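explain this chain.
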Amino acid sequence: MSTLSPPLARMALGLTAGLFSSAALAHAVAEGDKGYIQEITGVHLMPFAYLGAKHMFTGYDHILFLLGVVFFLYKLKDIALYVTLFAVGHSTTMLAGVYFGTSINSYLIDAVIGLSIVYKALDNLGAFQRWFGFQPDTRLATLVFGLIHGFGLATKIQEYEMSRDGLLPNLLSFNVGVEIGQLLALSCILIAMGFWRRTDGFFKHAYTANVVMMSAGFVLVGLQITGYFVS
């Protein structure tokens, strides 16, 4: 079996380790940010844009899923299409969920988010074609999982009881920040992938990298299910 190259090993282990930190679980918001969200009223566009960017750039579940989405995408137009589909899904359920007060248990929704990472890793490994003889629509899957990721964030935000005064502008600003954070995270991923793809070991290590990503997804699922039963 192939082994991970040192740079890839550090990246994979770092992302997996992040799943164990409280800031990365259940779309958690840092305690300081939580207090800020609970205390303020009125319109605060820049602070909420910052919070949105910070959430996305430090959200290991989002980053792992995005890594899986772009793993074998080489053309800029394809990357733009899939990232747009994910952004549309993520934005729709995040905004609608918070505004209309729709939520479910955060542990359960984040377990499904963990499964989205597992799904994408299996897709990259060609598992569905081997197991079932067909390839699921990857564009539809990206949109659907984007909806789920946004719903997870909406569920967590509602726990912090944002003021209804200025809610919609603040949510829109938060969402803009989320998309900025997504673009920053994606840029880092694409730069790293660009260098890695130029090496002779890319296809040799691609299988192992996706197995590690799939394992991280299962870890997240296990942690969230455990949290659901012990909370």
Remarks:
- DSSP finds ten helices and no strands in the chain.
- The longest helix spans residues 167-197.
- Residues 6-230 form one domain.
